[in-house]
Amino acid sequence: MHRQEIEHSGVLLVDKEQEMTSHDVVAIARRSLGIKKIGHCGTLDPMATGLLMLVVGRATKIQDLLMSEDKEYVGTITLGQTTNTQDAKGEVLVEAEVGDYSEEQIRAVFDEYTGAFEQMPPMVSAIKKDGVPLYKLARKGQEVERALRPVHVTSYEITRVALPEIDFVVNCSKGFYVRTYAHDIGAKLGCGGHLSALRRTRSGRFNLERTISIDQLKNGEREELLKSMVSLAEISLMRGA
Q: What's the predicted TM-score (pTM) here?
C-alpha cells in the first residue's frame, strides 16, 4: 500500500452550515483535498447544522461502522403547525391552537418517546421504495406505505419552554428521524408540531471540538486540512481495537 494513501486517509470532521446538502460538503472536500475517495457518515438535512463526518481514502472502509453509532442532537420544536416534511422547510398542512401546556405535561410526552419504540419514516426521506428515494415520490405528490422502524432514545433534556417553542437535546440510535420525533411529540400533545431547528453535536465518540468550518474547508491549505483529519490509528485507539 502506498504511504501517500495511508497519509491521506482518515476522518475529517466538518461543522455543516444551513442550506447545504451533505453531498455539497463532500464535493467541496473533494475539490479542496484533490481526493475523489470521500464519503460522509449520515446525511444531515439542508436545514440542519453541525457535525458531518467525512471519510477520506481508506477510511471509507469503516464508513458503515462509524454510521452505526449513537448520535446527539440539539433542536427546537415549534408547536401548532404540522408540515408535510415534518420540519420548517415544508408546507403547513394543519394549524392548531397551542394549549397552555405545563413543563410536566411536555415532559410526560417526551418520556413516552424514550427507550425503545418505532418510528414511521417521513415521506421526505432518502429511504428507497423499489429503488426510488421516497423524497422523489413525495415531490410528485405520491404517498407510499412505509414500514415502521425500531429506534432508541437513550436520554433527552428539555432546555427551554417558551411556547410555541420547545428546545431539547436528544441522544438516539442510528436511523432516528428527529423531524419525526418533533412531529410525533406535537401530535401527542394534541396541537401538532414540526422541527424548526436542528444541530448534530455528537456522533459516536466524535463531537464538535475538532470540527473545521465550511470556510476552512473551502479556503484552507490542503496540507492543513489533511493534518486536521483524525487518523485511522487514532480511531482504532478510540474504539479500543
A: 0.90
